Recover the amino acids of this structure.
């Protein structure tokens, strides 16, 4: 289960929490796009890493995006 795995963060959790912050809520692109772009930038910078699809399905039993700490964390 994802909630019990340390260091694994579901996209849904990030979305719920980040939508409440003024920086995302008031972004001119809209909160959904601002969150997507921020997460994409963090993955590209190796701050976060996207859990591969086969691991999400096999280990966690979910299809939604999961993030973990990247090498530059």
């Amino acid at each position: 289960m994802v909630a019990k795995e340390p260091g694994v963060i579901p996209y849904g959790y990030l979305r719920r929490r980040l939508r409440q912050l003024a920086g995302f809520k008031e972004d001119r692109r809209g909160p959904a796009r601002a969150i997507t772009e921020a997460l994409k930038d963090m993955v590209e910078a190796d701050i976060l890493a996207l859990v591969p699809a086969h691991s999400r399905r096999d280990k966690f039993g979910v299809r939604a995006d999961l993030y973990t700490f990247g090498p530059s964390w």
Notes: The mean pLDDT is 93. The longest strand covers residues 66-69. The CA atoms of residues 10 and 34 lie 17 Å apart.
